[in-house]
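Subject: complex prediction, re-run

Hi both,

The earlier run crashed halfway through, so I resubmitted it with identical inputs.
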Amino acid sequence: MRKKTSSVFVMTVSILMLFILGAGYLHITNGVFDMSVMDVLKTLLRIEPNSKFDLVIFEFRLPRIVIAALVGVGLGMAGVVLQGITRNGLADPGILGINAGAGAAVVIFMFFFQLRLTSADMSSWLSILMMPIFGFVGGAMAAVLIFSFALKNGHLDMQRLILTGIAINSGFGALSLFLSLRMNAQDYEAAAVWMAGSIYNANWIFVVTMLPWLILLGFYVYRKSYLLDYFQLEEDSITSLGIAVEKEKMKLLLASVGLVSACVSVSGSIGFIGLMAPHIAKQLVGIQHRYVMPVSALIGAGLLILADFIGKTVFAPSELAVGIVVSIIGIPYFLYLLVKSKA
Amino acid sequence: MKKTNIVAFSILAASPFLIAIVALVSVMYGTKDISAITVWQAITAFDPSNVDHQIVRTGRIPRIAAVLLVGAFLAVAGAVMQGITRNYLASPSLMGVNDGSAFVITLAIVFFPGLPNYQMILLSMLGSALGAGIVFGFGSLIRNGLSPVRLAIIGTVIGTFLSSIATAIAMYFQVSQTVSVWYNTKVHMVDMDMLMLAIPFGLIGLVLALISAKAITITSLGEDIAIGLGQKTKTVKIISMLAVVCLTGTAVALVGKIAFVGLVIPHITRFLVGVDYRFIIPCAAVVGAFFLALCDVLSRFVNYPFETPIGVLTALVGVPFFLYLVRKHGGEKRA
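This time it finished cleanly. Structure:
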């Protein structure tokens, strides 16, 4: 049994890798001007470098694909953790309002620091590096609010959790709207584009910004993923195993808020990836979280690259924010889950 | 019972004064303050060459009229929805009604540009019906789907879906700006034609709501009781949904999406006048009108001299109230 699961796991991972490569291939060769795979390979491997291709690939398409992949990985993992902690398959960073909290904090940050997201000089590096930290504070605040409202006699009440998430979403949404309207036109533009959940102004600074968060917290939650298996048991039996349940839950929660905030601070609020990826992963490799977690991360990455590709090509010459593409794909899936789940 | 009557009647009796005061304040204050005497002259002895008179006539009066109407419409629509579904979270904005309307309007702007106003109002209502129909249809399809929590989730998610598709369509046909002008809150630029059309359409909705008020009270006691009392529950639901569609469709057509009025005001009204919808509906109309007019006045001063979207103000009241309701009721069924 165990052997079988792990071979299924290896196969799933390989197929997902191919899927991501395929999506990446589509993404990098199509766009305002198409290039052949040979052009791309030649540019990447530095055979006959060509400044025009260099610009398109290294400044525009590649960072965008990398960001899409990283955000997908972060949201996919955070989704697994949140669903595991709350023991509810409908939990998602977007629905719970963590996205909105992190988003509002980043808007506050942009508002006070008058950040030009597109500029890449050294002084802006520092402020961009600070963005995930701000996002984290906002996301953690939202999480604390949500969980304190949802606690009923020391237990999480799922219905309250989701309802509070809805309220938090509109509250922080209104706050972000209010602040963004007080910005000057240029900052407003940047904030509005960013809030819709888009990655088309991606650049390498963002990659550097979110990478440490993803690596550190990603490894942390992966290492702790076996705990999520235990959390599916009755509370009493876990305690009898000698696990400090509440403490571990809190740590994992904070780690997932950190992952989400790093993602939100570069891409804005993208919902439903954290919901879909874990479900698909569980259908592919079963319920053991040490398999679910990496598979969910890869699915998140693949989905987001694909969604961004759809957003940039179907609507050319204008671009549809990737967050909107993801909602259009993700919501029917969410409703399907709702139909399937027991009341 | 007797006592609640007194409260209800005193609300209704006091309403002309309260609304007159908030209306006067609304007309007098803004980016440019205008004295009460000038306002009076603008109404009684209009002088087209006087800029202040122009502001009062073409800007401030249509605005306060629209805000009062929309406040009343949304509050009544929310009250009717909460009563019929016995769901304390039911309200136009949470149930995808607003988004449905905005969705259809987007389609109309793309495929039938330049439609006359009255057709836009009709389409807006059609969209409200569509949004509500999808949400309730889906809710009744799944097990326990009409419970407060599930319906709220379904409504939010389907609302997001409809507005995402609308955004995508608007983007594809490059009409985003026209569309966002249409359905983002636009209390500061109320269209006079639209206002004149909104009155009859909204009145139809209000009358339908008042007609079904007694039946809604009975329904709110529970389906079984209603059937036991010999009520035609289907007819009641259809009539009251028609009322909701008329009211929200008109409201969205007039000023765009405004959240939380339809959620909060019915609760406050029920708290004040009790559980009889014959009192709740007219009182909700008055309280809603007053509340939204107040929010509109405040929206001009929060970030003076710039205007804040009125939705920010309603959220400021609505979000804590929503949290309070969730804290208090959790997943129970009640209205």
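Residues 51-85 of chain B form the longest helix (35 residues).

- K.
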